[in-house]
């Protein structure tokens, strides 16, 4: 059962305490409050966990400061969209909004390699007024003999360059809770010139101890990538692990699923699931066209497949795009073949914006206009 408090209460803590007091009447029921910050409103929910089936809603509805009480049968208690009218709140981080309305392109290197490449990438983004990027320092690779990422040693100069170029948010994969500590230490030492969105890669989608650890910290939001060989439901449950531990600031990323039926793409593109995730959860949805397509192919119309699938994701309601670029893909130490070259950056961003406008037009005015 979820007790939703009125938005923008002066002292939500008093109402939370009142809800908790009423909940004490019912044995086997515990409470957990969650605070959400939307674009124009903030609100708090108190989740009642345990044997709530026979708990009446009226004692809670009668409390001052309570907006409504929702009985939840759905399994995604925190990330779930419990009614079609519920607004997806999203969150703001480092001055950048992530929600189901705001388009953010996180273009950057799959793996950090040299300060020159990182600097070139960030300078190109800054020129276009983009404040979000991707930079992998810890790379989980299929072979132990492949480049594993520069790790903590590159963090100081990556963060410093980000600050110089006005980059506010870097999507950066972590494969162990230790990496979160290393990122925290390096950011603090650098004077926090930028922010980090912790990326959970597809290979760690069910690493429950990692999920719990990043859920227990509130400093960094999370970019969760769908598990490549598990069901969508299993991936959403994995996100619920993060959220139920206390961190609801999650973006859900589709990145293709493993199947030879996707050939000649690296993965079978699963962006048809964008509206499914939007319908079932309150999370903003990201698409990663690079790791799903994984190839530099260009179709006869002149657009790379990476553009085409990005368009498919955005036209279906995705608002975040995680995409690989590289100043010199041949020299990239990881995933060079799927990286777009820098001359494509401006066309790519414009393309994303145009498809988003088209989506907004269709939603506002109907598809048949
Ligand atoms: C990545 O984004 O660099 C990555 C490794 O992605 P995935 O976890 O989707 O394979
Ligand atoms: Mn990669």
Describe the structure.
The protein is of the alpha/beta class. It has two domains: 2-70, Alpha-Beta Plaits, CATH 3.30.70; 91-364, Aldolase class I (TIM Barrel, Alpha-Beta Barrel), CATH 3.20.20. Helices cover 32% and strands 19% of the residues. It has an eight-stranded parallel sheet with strand order 7-14-13-12-11-10-9-8. Bound molecules: phosphoenolpyruvate and manganese (II) ion. Manganese (II) ion binds at residues 110, 291, 334-335.
In short:
The protein has 2 domains: about 70 residues, Alpha-Beta Plaits; about 270 residues, TIM Barrel, CATH 3.20.20. It is built from 11 helices and 14 strands. An 8-stranded parallel beta sheet has the order 7-14-13-12-11-10-9-8. A 4-stranded antiparallel beta sheet has the order 2-3-1-4, with helices on one face. Strands 5-6 form a two-stranded antiparallel ribbon.
Give the SSE layout.
Elements: E1 2-5, H1 12-23, E2 29-37, E3 42-50, H2 58-61, E4 66-70, E5 91-93, E6 96-98, E7 104-108, H3 115-127, E8 132-134, H4 155-164, E9 169-173, H5 177-189, E10 195-200, H6 208-216, E11 222-225, H7 232-244, E12 250-254, H8 274-280, E13 284-287, H9 289-293, H10 305-315, E14 320-324, H11 345-365
Parallel strand pairs: 7-14, 8-9, 9-10, 10-11, 11-12, 12-13, 13-14
Antiparallel strand pairs: 1-3, 1-4, 2-3, 5-6
Helix pairs in contact: 3-4, 6-7, 10-11
The site of phosphoenolpyruvate has 10 residues, from loops.
Largest sheet: 8 strands, parallel
Cofactors and ligands: phosphoenolpyruvate, manganese (II) ion
Unreliable residue stretches: none
Q: What fraction strand? A: 15-25%
CATH class of the largest domain: Alpha Beta
Mean pLDDT: 95
């Amino acid at each position: 059962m979820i007790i939703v408090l009125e938005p923008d209460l002066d002292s939500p803590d008093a109402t939370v305490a009142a809800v908790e007091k009423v909940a004490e009447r019912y044995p086997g029921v515990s409470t957990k409050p969650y605070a959400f910050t939307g674009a124009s409103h903030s609100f708090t929910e108190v989740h009642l966990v345990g044997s709530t089936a026979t708990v009446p809603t009226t004692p809670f509805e009668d409390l001052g400061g309570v907006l409504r009480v929702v009985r939840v049968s759905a399994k995604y208690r925190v990330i779930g969209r419990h009614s079609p009218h519920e607004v997806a709140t999203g969150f703001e981080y480092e001055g950048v909004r992530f929600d189901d309305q705001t388009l953010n392109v996180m273009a950057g290197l799959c793996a950090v390699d040299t300060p020159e490449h990182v600097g070139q990438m960030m300078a190109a983004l800054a020129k276009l007024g983009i404040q979000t990027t991707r930079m992998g320092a810890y790379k989980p690779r299929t072979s132990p003999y492949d480049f594993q990422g520069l790790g903590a040693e590159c963090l100081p100069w990556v963060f410093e360059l980000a600050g110089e170029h006005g980059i506010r948010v870097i999507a950066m994969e972590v494969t162990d809770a230790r990496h979160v500590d290393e990122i925290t230490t390096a950011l603090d030492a650098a004077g926090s010139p930028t922010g980090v969105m912790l990326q959970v890669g597809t290979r760690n989608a069910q690493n429950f101890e990692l999920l719990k650890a990043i859920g227990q910290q509130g400093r960094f939001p999370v970019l969760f990538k769908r598990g490549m060989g598990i069901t969508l439901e299993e991936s959403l449950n994995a996100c619920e692990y993060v959220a139920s531990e206390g961190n609801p600031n999650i973006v859900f990323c589709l990145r293709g699923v493993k199947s030879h039926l996707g050939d000649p793409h690296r993965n079978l593109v699963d962006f048809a699931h964008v509206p499914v995730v939007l319908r079932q959860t309150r999370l903003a949805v990201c698409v990663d066209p690079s790791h799903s397509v994984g190839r530099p192919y260009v179709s006869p119309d002149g657009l790379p497949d990476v553009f085409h699938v990005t368009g498919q994701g955005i036209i279906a309601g995705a608002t975040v795009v995680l995409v690989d670029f590289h100043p010199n893909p041949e020299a990239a130490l990881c995933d060079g073949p799927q990286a777009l070259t820098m001359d494509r950056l401006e066309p790519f961003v414009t393309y994303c914006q145009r498809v988003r406008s088209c989506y907004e037009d269709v939603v506002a005015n109907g598809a048949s206009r």
